[in-house]
Amino acid sequence: MSTPAAEHAPGPAPADRIAARARALTKAYGSGETAVLALDSVDVDIARGRFTAVMGPSGSGKSTLMHCLAGLDTVSAGQVWLGGTEITGLKERDLTRLRRDRIGFMFQSFNLIPTLNAAENITLPMDIAGQKPDREWLDRVIDTLGLRDRLKHRPAQLSGGQQQRVACARALASRPELIFADEPTGNLDSRAGLEVLAFLREAVDNLGQTVVMVTHDPGAAAHADLVLFLADGRIVDEMERPTAEAVLERMKRFDVIRAQFDGGEGEDGTAVPDTRADAEEK
Ligand SMILES: Nc1ncnc2c1ncn2[C@@H]1O[C@H](COP(=O)(O)OP(=O)(O)OP(=O)(O)O)[C@@H](O)[C@H]1O
């Protein structure tokens, strides 16, 4: 995506290049005086075969955007497509099937089943769906993620990084069109976090996957091809080929704006940036 998302002309998604698309995507929670506009008419294209990171201040709508794009949450207005399929308006049963067949999820908590070993956890969603894994693909995923000698281990016998790699393999197992990762490194130490990011990168480069990752960490976002910046429910900026430093600088500008809004200016009138992003940089 080389132009700001808002400049793309609306219309049906060319299914070969765009993995997910939203037009005028609006999500409000609650009603009346307590209503919160979590997404405010967002236009976005998620390019196929790329690694996209979504960043923004707390409460800017990152998770809501991911949930709406993945059909995990209903929208208040606007349209969402997954590939060529418009998912807004689909019945819950069709949506469940579409999520199962076409989307992989990775969350901060790995959600592994403690009584199953790594191999069983990896194929569990497919087993539940009655699908047979493509053995060749699965072997590639397992080898790419370096899990070959851990397949018989249960989660408690694996390190945090290994558990997250199992969760990554589970997301990849059915070869989904799109992988959504919500803070996939949030619970990991920096070394394990880096490992998982490197594997997501490999999934994109070597396995041709499409990944969308929500993160607070500029270092994590630097592994992506493109960073989308959200503020107050809108995509306000994007950055191609990000570096951790450039992302951190961009995030600080949000903090400066926020500090000015909150009246948090220093004596000389310069805003005092919130150093949250520094603290979270690995
Ligand atoms: N179920 C809900 N009910 C009411 N308000 C909600 C709900 N979910 C999210 N919100 C509100 O919508 C806005 C966007 O939330 P969202 O979780 O998408 O932000 P975020 O950028 O992912 O935040 P964080 O970085 O803190 O996880 C916030 O103001 C939040 O309080």
Structure write-up:
Residues 20-257 form the ABC transporter domain. Residues 262-282 are annotated as: Disordered. One of its GO terms (molecular function) is ATP binding. By secondary structure, this protein is α/β, with parallel strands linked by helices. It has 2 domains: 49-77 and 92-242, P-loop containing nucleotide triphosphate hydrolases (Rossmann fold, 3-Layer(aba) Sandwich); 244-274, no CATH class. It has helices at residues 62-69, 92-102, 118-128, 135-144, 160-173, 190-205, 218-221, 244-261, 276-280, and strands at 18-29, 36-47, 51-55, 77-82, 85-86, 103-106, 178-182, 211-214, 226-231, 234-240. A hairpin with a 2-residue loop joins strand 9 and strand 10 (234-240). Helix 3 packs parallel to helix 5 (160-173) and helix 5 (160-173) runs parallel beside helix 6. It is globular. Bound molecules: adenosine-5'-triphosphate (ATP). The site of adenosine-5'-triphosphate (ATP) has 12 residues, from strand 2 and helix 1.
